[in-house]
C-alpha cells in the first residue's frame, strides 16, 4: 500500500487506551463486545482508525479527552489481587487506592502473596511501553526461601533455566544471608514471566515464602509503607522516558487526601492513624536509620510521607525501620535509602541483619 493511502488517525483501541479507558487489549475486547460506538455506529472490530473529529462513546458515555501520562509508585501488601475484579471476591489492589485517584492500570502484576513495588498509570500506551521486555528495565526482588542453595545451583539461574518447557532468561542472583531454616536472596529480572521466581526456585528444590519487589527500572520502593501511594513528578517521568521538563506533584495519603505533613503542619485527621498518631510515628522514625527525613532530599517523589494501610500483621517490609513479626522473625530487609526515579536501578535493599 502506498503511504499516501494509509488511513489518517490512530487505531480505535489505541485511542481508548490513551484516554485511560482500558489497556489496548482490554479495549479490543470492549469493541468486540459492542460497547463502543464511532459517530453513532456500533463497531465490532478494532481494525478502524479514528481522528479527533470522530465522535466516540463507550457504554453510551462520550470519550473524554486524553490526560497527560502519569505514573504512581504503590507498595502492594501481600494478600491483594492485581486485577480490576476477582471472581472469588478477594480484595484487589484497586480497592486499596485513594478514592479520588483517576482510573489507573497496573504496569505488570504481582501475584497474591507477593508484595512490594507496583507501578500504576492512567495511560494505556505508557503501561504497554513499560511492560515490554525491549525496554530493558531490571526488576529487582528480595526473596526469602525455605532451605539453602549452593552457588552451583544459583549458577543455573544465572545462565538461564528451563522449567516444565518454559525457558527463562538469565537472572542476576546474589546470595545475601542464611538465617536458620531461611535464606535471603536478591534477584534481578528483565523479563518477568508469570511466577517466574517461584517456579525457578522450585526447580532448585526450595520454596519461596516471601517475595518483595524493590525496584522496577529506575523506580524504587524506598521508604513507601505497605498501602502507600506516591506519584512520580512529571519532570522525572519525562526524564526517564527521554522527554522534557514538567511541574511537581504531590504524594497522596491512602485516604486520597493531600496537604502538609500530617501532624507537623496540620491538614490531617485527628482520629486513629491521623495527624496526632502520625506525628508521634514521624518523631520516632526520624531517629531511625534510612527513614523519612532523608526522603525530601531525593528526586522522583515529593518527600512527603503519610500513613499507610497495611494488610494483616506479622513480618512486613518496613524499610529502615523493620519491625519483627509476632514469631520473632527479624529477618525482614532494610533499605539503603535508594533514590526513587533516579538515573539507575542498581540500588536496593541491604542484606538483613539481626
Automatic annotation (TrEMBL):
Its EC number is 5.4.99.-. CDD domains: S4. Keywords: Isomerase, RNA-binding. NCBIfam families: pseudouridine synthase. Residues 238-255, 326-339 have a biased composition (Basic and acidic residues). The keyword RNA-binding applies. Residues 10-68 form the RNA-binding S4 domain. GO terms for molecular function: RNA binding; rRNA pseudouridine synthase activity. PROSITE patterns: PSI_RSU (PS01149), S4 (PS50889). The keyword RNA-binding applies. PANTHER family: PSEUDOURIDINE SYNTHASE FAMILY PROTEIN-RELATED (PTHR47683), RIBOSOMAL LARGE SUBUNIT PSEUDOURIDINE SYNTHASE B (PTHR47683:SF3). Residues 264-274, 300-317 have a biased composition (Gly residues). This is Pseudouridine synthase. It catalyses: a uridine in RNA = a pseudouridine in RNA. Gene3D superfamilies: Alpha-L RNA-binding motif, Pseudouridine synthase I, catalytic domain, N-terminal subdomain, RNA-binding S4 domain. SMART domains: S4 (SM00363). One of its GO terms (biological process) is enzyme-directed rRNA pseudouridine synthesis. Belongs to the pseudouridine synthase RsuA family. The gene is rluB. Residues 238-354 are annotated as: Disordered. It comes from the Bacteria.
Amino acid at each position: 500500500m502506498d503511504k499516501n493511502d494509509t488511513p489518517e488517525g490512530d487505531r480505535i483501541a489505541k485511542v481508548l487506551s490513551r484516554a485511560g479507558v482500558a489497556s489496548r487489549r482490554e479495549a479490543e475486547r470492549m469493541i468486540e463486545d459492542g460497547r463502543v460506538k464511532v459517530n453513532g455506529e456500533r463497531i465490532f472490530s478494532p481494525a478502524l482508525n479514528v481522528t479527533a473529529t470522530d465522535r466516540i462513546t463507550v457504554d453510551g458515555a462520550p470519550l473524554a479527552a486524553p490526560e497527560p501520562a502519569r505514573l504512581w509508585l504503590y507498595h502492594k501488601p501481600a494478600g491483594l489481587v492485581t486485577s480490576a475484579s476477582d471472581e472469588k471476591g478477594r480484595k484487589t489492589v484497586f480497592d486499596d487506592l485513594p478514592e479520588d485517584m483517576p482510573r489507573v492500570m497496573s504496569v505488570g502484576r504481582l501475584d497474591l502473596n507477593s508484595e512490594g513495588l507496583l507501578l500504576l498509570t492512567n495511560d494505556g500506551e505508557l503501561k504497554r511501553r513499560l511492560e515490554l521486555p525491549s525496554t530493558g528495565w531490571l526488576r529487582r526482588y528480595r526473596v526469602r526461601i525455605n532451605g539453602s542453595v549452593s552457588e552451583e545451583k544459583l549458577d543455573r539461574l544465572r545462565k538461564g533455566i528451563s522449567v516444565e518447557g518454559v525457558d527463562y532468561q538469565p537472572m542476576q542472583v546474589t546470595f545475601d544471608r542464611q538465617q536458620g531454616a531461611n535464606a535471603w536472596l536478591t534477584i534481578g529480572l528483565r523479563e518477568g514471566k508469570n511466577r517466574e521466581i517461584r517456579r525457578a526456585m522450585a526447580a532448585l528444590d526450595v520454596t519461596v515464602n516471601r517475595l518483595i519487589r524493590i525496584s522496577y527500572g529506575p523506580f524504587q520502593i524506598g521508604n513507601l509503607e505497605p498501602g502507600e501511594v506516591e506519584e512520580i513528578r512529571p519532570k522525572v517521568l519525562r526524564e526517564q522516558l527521554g522527554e522534557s521538563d514538567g511541574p511537581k506533584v504531590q504524594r497522596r495519603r491512602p485516604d486520597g487526601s493531600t496537604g502538609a505533613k500530617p501532624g507537623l503542619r496540620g491538614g490531617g485527621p485527628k482520629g486513629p492513624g491521623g495527624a496526632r498518631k502520625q506525628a508521634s510515628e514521624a518523631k520516632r522514625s526520624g531517629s531511625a536509620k534510612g527513614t523519612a527525613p532523608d526522603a525530601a532530599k531525593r528526586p522522583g517523589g515529593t518527600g512527603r510521607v503519610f500513613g499507610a494501610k497495611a494488610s494483616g500483621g506479622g513480618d512486613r517490609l518496613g524499610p529502615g525501620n523493620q519491625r519483627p513479626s509476632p514469631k520473632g522473625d527479624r529477618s525482614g530487609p532494610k533499605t539503603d535509602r535508594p533514590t526513587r526515579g533516579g538515573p539507575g536501578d542498581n540500588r536496593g535493599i541491604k542484606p538483613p541483619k539481626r
